[in-house]
């Protein structure tokens, strides 16, 4: 029994280890990324904070379009806006507008804008990756040279949009060939020091044909769309905004008007769109406040998933109710994800661990159910089938023999003078004799449909399908020889020996026969064997051949 428990423990440990490894692989391969992102959105969606008061958006909104006319506007208009912002004393200007081609109608427009940018000395202009025609090779859309050279710096505006259409983060560095352009929000924040973010393992490998990105971070959004103060472009241009509202601020000038502004969904959107300019404001606010959220490194993520599944397996191995183990294990991945996110600004994707733990709990439940079913059909002392299993199997084999016309043999076995053995050597020795006899019976019932069972006490049985009387008799002679060689050390140099009496009945069931008739005939043969002096067997009368005593053939 102990060896069986050890084997069961090894199998459970092996299964749990394989399941934990599969869960870690699933996490590394991001098989459940959509569910993970759903959990992430719920944890981050309402986790807002007061936005950095130094940030403001100058919005190219519907009212500005109505008053200034159809887009695009003359570049001299943007030059006038920059001058207004300079007069108000802004700290930095991110002009989130593309100027990839010169003004072909009026060259003075480019010169005026370049001059205004140069005089300011604090204007950031965007770089965008794009593909031209049917080519897959990306190119960088830069401002025209005269305008680009006047800018304080250039920055990329590439926003990472996940497969479900939601923008949750971005790469702080990007560029064709290698990641050298900083993100616009990063330049606007100008925090200095080492960059946070998850490194791209391929970022250090130059490639002139790929858009490389590095230092991925997730944003902690200050709130839903509209959280940052927005000033209408036309109001700033016409000097209607008090200078004190702009003094010392980091200003992003960008599109917010529906139809021409980029529209982004974020974890805080609640089905409302966020403009690209406000997204960049969130980037700057996240970096200024030190709120950047970092996904765990893939190996650390997979390792934690494996650890959580193995800890669940350990809980299930402890002497705890399964419901309590489930109550402790199932919330663990979510709690760990929440603690790491809120306490350490690290994102742990919990769903692979949840799936692994749920699978482990389900397997444990099935395992326990099968174990209880085995216990319900097994004798706890010997491991043989019990009375309930014996009766069910006898009925099944009796029905099968009636259909096939094949003989069915039933053997009933008793240990001789078992009470005397218990009284003389003690119950411990008696139990050892019972277990040894059970092992012998089990070794003789070697075919898949053979069954060795114990009724209780010293009573045993063998059900032998497709076995004629002669075959059952040969098996009984082998059993008698093995039992005579049995001996259990009983202390003080004594050796407890045993003998058995057995009765066998073989029948080809007919439509009118019943399993109880087979049992009664075998029991009567067992009684005859005991009357004849024990340590032997008798056969019930065959259907056509009369019974013969032990020593000859049945």
Automatic annotation (TrEMBL):
<dbReference type="InterPro" id="IPR000160">
    <property type="entry name" value="GGDEF_dom"/>
</dbReference>
<feature type="domain" description="GGDEF">
    <location>
        <begin position="406"/>
        <end position="542"/>
    </location>
</feature>
<dbReference type="InterPro" id="IPR050469">
    <property type="entry name" value="Diguanylate_Cyclase"/>
</dbReference>
<dbReference type="InterPro" id="IPR043128">
    <property type="entry name" value="Rev_trsase/Diguanyl_cyclase"/>
</dbReference>
<keyword id="KW-0472">Membrane</keyword>
<dbReference type="InterPro" id="IPR029787">
    <property type="entry name" value="Nucleotide_cyclase"/>
</dbReference>
<keyword id="KW-1133">Transmembrane helix</keyword>
<dbReference type="Pfam" id="PF05226">
    <property type="entry name" value="CHASE2"/>
</dbReference>
<dbReference type="Pfam" id="PF00990">
    <property type="entry name" value="GGDEF"/>
</dbReference>
<feature type="transmembrane region" description="Helical">
    <location>
        <begin position="347"/>
        <end position="369"/>
    </location>
</feature>
<keyword id="KW-0812">Transmembrane</keyword>
<feature type="transmembrane region" description="Helical">
    <location>
        <begin position="300"/>
        <end position="318"/>
    </location>
</feature>
<dbReference type="GO" id="GO:0052621">
    <property type="term" value="F:diguanylate cyclase activity"/>
</dbReference>
<dbReference type="GO" id="GO:0005886">
    <property type="term" value="C:plasma membrane"/>
</dbReference>
<dbReference type="GO" id="GO:1902201">
    <property type="term" value="P:negative regulation of bacterial-type flagellum-dependent cell motility"/>
</dbReference>
<dbReference type="GO" id="GO:0043709">
    <property type="term" value="P:cell adhesion involved in single-species biofilm formation"/>
</dbReference>
<dbReference type="InterPro" id="IPR007890">
    <property type="entry name" value="CHASE2"/>
</dbReference>
<protein>
    <recommendedName>
        <fullName>diguanylate cyclase</fullName>
        <ecNumber>2.7.7.65</ecNumber>
    </recommendedName>
</protein>
């Amino acid at each position: 029994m102990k060896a069986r428990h050890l084997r069961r423990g090894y199998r459970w440990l092996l299964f749990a280890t394989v399941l934990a490894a599969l869960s870690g692989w699933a996490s590394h391969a991001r098989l459940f990324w959509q569910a993970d992102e759903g959990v992430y959105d719920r944890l981050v969606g309402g986790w807002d904070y007061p936005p950095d008061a130094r940030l403001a958006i100058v919005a190219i909104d519907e009212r500005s379009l109505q008053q200034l006319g159809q887009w695009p506007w003359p570049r001299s208009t943007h030059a006038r806006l920059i001058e207004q912002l300079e007069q108000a004393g802004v700290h930095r200007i991110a002009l989130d507008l593309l100027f990839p081609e010169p003004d072909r109608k009026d060259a003075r427009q480019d010169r005026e804008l370049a001059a205004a940018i140069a005089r300011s000395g604090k204007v950031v202009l965007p770089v965008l990756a794009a593909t031209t025609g049917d080519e897959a090779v990306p190119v960088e859309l830069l401002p025209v040279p005269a305008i680009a050279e006047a800018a304080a710096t250039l920055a990329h505006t590439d926003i990472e949009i996940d497969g479900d259409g939601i923008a949750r983060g971005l790469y702080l560095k990007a560029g064709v060939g290698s990641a050298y352009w900083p993100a616009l929000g990063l330049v606007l924040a100008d925090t200095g020091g080492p960059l946070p973010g998850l490194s791209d393992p391929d970022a250090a490998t130059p490639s002139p044909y790929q858009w490389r990105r590095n230092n991925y971070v997730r944003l902690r959004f200050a709130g839903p769309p509209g959280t940052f103060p927005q000033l209408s472009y036309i109001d700033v241009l016409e000097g209607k905004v008090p200078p004190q509202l702009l003094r010392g601020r980091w200003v992003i000038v960008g599109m917010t008007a529906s139809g021409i502004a980029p529209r982004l969904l974020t974890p805080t959107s609640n089905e409302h769109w966020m403009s690209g300019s406000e997204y960049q404001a969130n980037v700057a606010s996240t970096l200024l406040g030190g709120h950047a959220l970092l996904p765990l490194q893939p190996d650390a993520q997979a390792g934690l998933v494996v650890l959580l599944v193995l800890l669940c397996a350990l809980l299930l191995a402890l002497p705890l109710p399964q419901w309590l183990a489930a109550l402790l294990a199932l919330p663990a991945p979510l709690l760990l994800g929440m603690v790491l996110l809120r306490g350490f600004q690290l994102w742990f994707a919990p769903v692979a661990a949840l799936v692994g733990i749920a699978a482990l709990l389900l397997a444990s439940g099935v395992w326990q159910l099968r174990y209880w079913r085995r216990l319900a059909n097994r004798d706890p002392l010997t491991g043989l089938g019990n009375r309930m299993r014996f009766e069910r199997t006898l009925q099944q084999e009796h029905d099968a023999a009636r259909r096939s016309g094949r003989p069915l043999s039933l053997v009933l076995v008793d240990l001789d003078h078992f009470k005397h053995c218990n009284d003389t050597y003690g119950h411990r020795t008696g139990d050892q004799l019972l277990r040894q006899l059970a092992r012998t019976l089990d070794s003789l019932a070697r075919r898949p449909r053979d069954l060795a069972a114990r009724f209780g006490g010293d009573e045993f049985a063998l059900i032998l399908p497709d076995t004629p009387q002669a075959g059952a008799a040969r098996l009984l002679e082998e059993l008698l020889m093995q039992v005579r060689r049995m001996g259990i050390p009983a202390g003080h140099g004594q050796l407890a020996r045993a003998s058995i009496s057995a009765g066998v009945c073989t029948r080809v069931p007919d439509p009118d026969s019943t399993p109880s008739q087979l049992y009664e005939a075998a029991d009567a043969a067992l009684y005859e064997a005991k009357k004849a002096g024990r340590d032997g067997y008798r056969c019930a009368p065959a259907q056509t051949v009369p019974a013969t005593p032990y020593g000859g053939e049945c």
